[in-house]
Design a protein that fits this description.
The chain is α+β, with helices and mostly antiparallel strands. About 15% of the residues lie in helices and about 25% in strands. The strands form seven sheets. Strands 3, 4, 5, 6, 7 and 8 form a six-stranded antiparallel sheet that branches. The chain has a six-stranded mixed sheet with strand order 18-19-12-16-15-26. A five-stranded antiparallel sheet has the order 24-23-22-21-25. Helix 5 crosses helix 7. The protein starts with about 25 loop residues before the first strand and ends in a 10-residue tail after the last strand.
Length: about 575
């Protein structure tokens, strides 16, 4: 990289907003040793209450394949979720072994103690926010996956750290990183062990010095197993009895995971100044809106950063001809970039990217010049401030977020205002060029994504026949097995593949009906696909049909979709990068 400016943009005092008494969710140092930051309740929530608004999820598609299955530093691995957090994401690719979901809101900011989980995510959804590839140059520039909110699974007291269930496999596969973290069964085993030890204390050890009881307990603790790590450090007959009465070993962690609201106001940053909605900016899709009035200079949102030292890792390549059934990348033919790039911050003179996480910060759109009401600055408190003076290579030594942005109000912002930052002249020039040269891709006039076809009012939509071109090879069409049984045939499964042969009007009620043919695809000896037609079905209503996207057909994986990182301003970009 080359020198582009001095580090002058450090947040002067954005540790809190001007509405601390209203803040419902804070970002602050976690109560889990070594975990970095965590999220806390700034007020009490009842069971079932919404805690955070719905955030976006973006797919990371075949990252390992596009990087030649090399071993490389990829910090997002510590924050990504299974693609199954959004059920329709499974149709992104041919297989799902190299597919993950980056969830930069609650999916990245929340920690997990399995015995203290107090949040669950709500169902996300999938749509293009009104953008269509036949009309909109912004199609494919945004993720279609959104709405991942959180709600309380039990009553939450103000000051509680918020925890979501990562799944036991997360900790089982990261024992070297986190050590033997207690799992659900270990908490139960620890409670049983604590009970039996309490009986031993009451019936035998009370006749011996207290030090013997603690010495025996230390032997158990020194085993450093998952169960041992769930146990309290010190034991007396009184505290084991109290602990058992108040909820067992889980109570230890619950007490440790609570802070006062005064402490959060002093050491934390407010995270719920933003709600989601449809943007007022043309082609932007979704946007971020202020949940309350914010004064000039106050914090809009904190955003810890996932560092990507080499932006080339996001490059996507065309394929080489198959070699004995193996498909490899063509490194001389880069065709696109991961969608993640559009949500990263970078600079034209550097390979470094910074990927922000935090509640809804990735929905803040571009507003050039005076249209911007928010800007980014380096956070005052960061784990590795020294990185701003060091070459990017040092970042690969740490598998935790080390730097943070603060989004700060440039002027007074009213409740409901859309939040905008200036993405920079390089981004603006790239977008203007994209719009100037954009044209609707071939076949876009007959294209609809499966999640759109399944979500629209089925009774009011008309499906094309195969003679009319169908859906241009972008979706699979299925029919529910119940309609096969109604026609007097045995249904082979819940759903069957189908093609529409023709469409006609029912003379009795004027409704549109369809004649369709079921089929199966068979692979021949020479690896060709052969169609085996089965049944002809008549008088089918529109809602008999459901759709799946074919792999690699969605807008955001098409090479014509817009890609460019958001610009880090020159006056805050580190010379060392």
């Amino acid at each position: 990289s080359v020198s582009v400016g001095s580090i002058s943009s450090i947040s002067p005092d954005a540790s809190s907003s001007n509405n601390d008494n209203e803040c419902g969710v804070y970002l602050a140092p976690s109560t889990i040793p070594g975990a970095g930051l965590g999220m806390y309740a700034g007020k009490s929530f009842g069971k079932g209450d919404r805690v955070t608004y719905g955030d976006i999820i973006f797919p990371i598609v075949e990252l390992n394949w596009h990087n030649g299955h090399e071993t490389f530093f990829w910090l997002w691995d510590e924050y990504t979720w299974s693609y199954s957090v959004e059920e329709s994401m499974e149709f992104e690719t041919e297989g799902t072994t190299d597919l993950s979901a980056a969830s930069p809101g609650i999916g990245a900011a929340l920690n997990c103690i399995l015995s203290l989980v107090n949040l669950e995510d709500t169902f996300s959804t999938c749509d293009n926010a009104g953008l269509h590839r036949h009309n909109d140059p912004g199609a494919g520039a945004i993720t279609p996956y959104h709405g991942r909110a959180s709600k309380a699974t039990r009553p939450i007291t103000e000051g509680d750290e918020l925890f979501i269930d990562y799944g036991e496999n997360y900790f089982e596969s990261r024992k070297k990183t986190y050590g033997p973290i207690p799992l659900a069964e270990n908490i139960k085993e620890a409670d049983t062990l604590l009970y039996h030890f309490h009986v031993l204390q009451h019936e035998v050890l009370k006749y011996y010095p207290d030090s013997l009881s603690q010495d025996l307990w230390n032997i158990v603790k020194d085993l450093n197993t998952r169960t041992a790590n769930a146990l309290p450090t010190y034991v007396t007959e009184n505290n084991t009895e109290t602990l058992l009465k108040e909820g067992g070993t889980g109570k230890i962690h619950q007490d440790r995971s609570r802070r006062t609201v005064a402490w959060l106001q002093e050491n934390g940053q407010c995270m719920d100044n933003i709600r989601n909605g449809l943007s007022e900016i043309p082609q932007a899709g979704r946007g971020a809106f202020a949940t309350r009035a914010l004064k000039q200079g106050s914090l809009v949102a904190p955003a810890p950063l996932i560092h990507i030292p080499n932006k080339a890792r996001l490059t996507m390549y065309d394929t080489l001809p198959p070699d004995e059934g193996v498909i490899s990348r063509n490194t001389s033919a880069p065709v696109h970039q991961q969608l993640l790039l559009n949500y990263c911050f970078g600079h034209a003179n550097s390979n470094v990217l910074m990927s922000p996480y935090g509640v809804l910060v990735n929905l803040i759109n571009h507003g050039s010049g005076e249209k911007a009401n928010t800007r980014i600055v380096w956070s005052k408190e960061m784990r590795h401030t020294e990185w701003l003076e060091q070459p990017p290579k040092v970042m690969e030594e740490d598998w935790h977020s080390g730097l943070s942005f603060d989004f700060v109000a440039l002027r007074d912002i009213e409740e409901g205002d859309e939040l905008l930052i200036d993405y920079g002249p390089d981004w603006q020039a790239a977008w203007d060029d994209h719009v100037a040269h954009w044209k609707a891709p071939d076949g876009s006039n007959v294209y609809d994504a499966a999640y759109e076809l399944n979500g629209i009012d089925r009774a009011d939509s008309t499906l094309p026949t195969m003679a009319e071109g169908g859906y241009g090879g972008s979706v699979k069409m299925w029919i529910h097995g119940a309609y096969i049984e109604i026609a007097g045939h045995e249904s082979p499964s819940h759903y069957a593949r189908v093609e529409i042969v023709d469409r006609y009007e029912d003379t009795n009620n004027g409704e549109i009906r369809y004649r369709a043919q079921t089929f199966k695809e068979k692979e021949t000896k020479d690896s060709q696909t052969e169609i085996d037609y089965k049944l002809m079905l008549w008088s089918l209503p529109r809602d008999a049909f459901v759709f799946d996207d074919l792999p690699y057909t969605r807008d955001h994986v098409q090479s014509w979709s817009f890609r460019h990182a958001i610009g880090i301003p020159d006056d805050m970009f580190p010379n060392a990068w």
